């Protein structure tokens, strides 16, 4: 595993004192960081914060591999039904390590319909044969409306194709006991994998949530968790100035205090593109909070934005270089691409193309990254780089763990609970109420009254 973090362009010496951080400023957080580290260690040991232990669950990996090897032979298609933390990690693994164009992988063909757009879901039916499809339903709570709805949608076709044997094409990943998927699984012999109760959805990628689709696609899941375990060691370093999770958290904490409320993740790699989607949920849901742990209203958080290099240089970078200086940009860089064929100028009459001669697309991409980095730095825009030696399972696993540990640290520095999501719950409850779910009658009445009173302004 080789993942390196380059923080040079947040340091005041390179960025200027108005927007750069003094080393002593970061250093001044070390003492608080130590207290946060102790607190997190206690929680990891007491098993209240389960994501720390996910890279070491060997029995779970063996169970997944055994299941996946059999499933690869039995099924031609795999459909992953889940949303948010139950989808973004698995998608990121698939597009980074398997097939960067969705849905085109070899058998079994893999699909992640993580939305309830009826036309999109309907289109999927054209690409699969339901009777030869494994549906993997993933929901920590076992009740999320979108996931339940897509399960019911496909059930119609499963019942048509397989009659009472429909359950043979279903597997669930959910809480060990709680939730409606367990009620179904008690009735039918459906294979269930478990998300430990102490692992929140957005911290669950290294559990069966992310590893089953990966194993079915033929990704080396042992390498993913090996990379994560190596990174876990680095993130446990007592020397906090050498601890990548702490430094990442401290830098962002200090910038949040300075009003830099946007966190842009910009991979210069299509394969790493969806890691930024995964990061968005992690950073947004964990740190976007109204109250701190003492009950004070703090309304903290950073809005995570996804951009893609070099594509978005031609769309977003103008704003990043000259617009409001309210962002911290995180580049993801690949040092060694797998394919690096040299270009040749086939139009010698066009001398302007000669600078491409012998250069590869990878070189162009990385020079473009360097150029954007320079432009940002010269305009006092803080930016840092997470360098992947290559796009490998080890490095992707390490990336997941790094950002999870950094998020936990950042939550501690901000003195907020990084592991709940009360704001999202409000929307979930309102959806249940509007859909007329049992037990939500009072809420439904309240919402309908509220909607009636609302002044409308439709143009
Ligand atoms: O895995 P599930 O329980 O179905 O939850 C799916 C998602 O639901 C909500 O949106 C939560 O805020 C997310 O954190 C969670 O990942």
UniProtKB/TrEMBL annotation:
The keyword Disulfide bond does not apply. It catalyses: alpha-D-glucose 6-phosphate = beta-D-fructose 6-phosphate. GO terms for molecular function: carbohydrate derivative binding; glucose-6-phosphate isomerase activity; monosaccharide binding. It comes from the Bacteria. Coiled coil: none annotated. The keyword Cytoplasm applies. GO terms for biological process: gluconeogenesis; glucose 6-phosphate metabolic process; glycolytic process. InterPro entries: G6P_Isomerase, Phosphoglucose_isomerase_CS, SIS_dom_sf, SIS_PGI_1, SIS_PGI_2. Pathway: Carbohydrate biosynthesis; gluconeogenesis; Carbohydrate degradation; glycolysis; D-glyceraldehyde 3-phosphate and glycerone phosphate from D-glucose: step 2/4. Its EC number is 5.3.1.9. It is an enzyme of class 5 (isomerase). It is found in: Cytoplasm. It holds the Pfam family PGI. Keywords: Cytoplasm, Gluconeogenesis, Glycolysis, Isomerase. GO terms for cellular component: cytosol. CDD domains: SIS_PGI_1, SIS_PGI_2. The active site is at residues 285, 314, 428. Belongs to the GPI family. Catalyzes the reversible isomerization of glucose-6-phosphate to fructose-6-phosphate. This is Glucose-6-phosphate isomerase. It comes from Caldithrix abyssi DSM 13497.
């Amino acid at each position: 595993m080789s993942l390196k973090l380059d923080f040079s362009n947040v340091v005041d010496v390179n960025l200027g004192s108005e927007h750069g951080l003094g080393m002593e400023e970061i250093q001044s957080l070390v003492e608080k960081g130590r207290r946060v580290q102790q607190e997190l260690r206690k929680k990891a040991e007491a098993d209240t914060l389960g994501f720390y232990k996910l890279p070491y669950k060997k029995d779970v990996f063996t169970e997944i591999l055994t299941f996946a090897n059999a499933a690869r032979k039995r099924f031609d298609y795999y459909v992953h039904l889940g949303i948010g933390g139950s989808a973004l990690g698995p998608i990121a693994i698939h597009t980074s390590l398997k097939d960067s164009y969705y849905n085109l992988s070899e058998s079994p063909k893999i699909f992640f319909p993580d939305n309830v757009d009826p036309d999109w879901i309907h289109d999927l039916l054209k690409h699969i044969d339901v009777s030869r499809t494994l549906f993997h339903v993933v929901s920590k709570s076992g009740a999320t409306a979108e996931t339940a709805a897509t399960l019911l949608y496909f059930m119609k076709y499963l019942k048509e194709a397989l009659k009472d044997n429909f359950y043979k094409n279903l597997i669930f990943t959910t809480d060990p006991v709680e939730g409606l998927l367990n009620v179904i699984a008690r009735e039918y012999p459906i294979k269930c994998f478990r998300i430990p109760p102490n692992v929140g959805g957005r911290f669950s990628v290294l559990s069966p949530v992310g590893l089953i689709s990966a194993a079915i696609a033929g990704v080396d899941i042992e390498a993913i968790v090996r990379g994560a375990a190596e990174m876990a060691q680095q993130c446990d370093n007592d020397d906090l100035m050498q601890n990548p999770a702490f430094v990442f958290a401290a830098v962002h904490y200090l910038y949040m205090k300075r009003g830099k409320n946007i966190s842009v993740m910009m991979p210069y790699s299509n394969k790493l593109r969806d890691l930024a989607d995964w990061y968005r949920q992690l950073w947004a849901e964990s740190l976007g909070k109204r109250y701190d742990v003492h009950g004070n209203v703090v309304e903290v958080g950073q809005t995570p934005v996804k951009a893609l290099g070099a594509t978005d240089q031609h769309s977003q970078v103008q704003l990043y270089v000259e617009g409001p200086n309210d962002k911290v940009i995180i580049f993801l860089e690949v040092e060694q691409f797998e394919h690096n064929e040299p270009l040749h100028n086939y139009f010698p009459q066009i001398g302007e193309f000669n600078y491409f001669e012998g250069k590869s697309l990878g070189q162009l991409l990385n020079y473009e990254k360097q150029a954007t980095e320079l432009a940002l730095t010269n305009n006092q825009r803080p930016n840092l780089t997470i360098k992947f030696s290559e796009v490998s399972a080890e490095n992707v696993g390490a990336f997941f763990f790094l950002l999870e540990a950094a998020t936990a640290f950042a939550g501690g520095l901000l003195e907020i609970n990084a592991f709940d999501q009360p704001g999202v719950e409000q929307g979930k409850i309102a959806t249940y109420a509007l859909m007329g779910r049992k037990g939500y009658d009072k809420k439904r009445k309240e919402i309908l009254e509220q909607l009636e009173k609302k002044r409308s302004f439709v143009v």
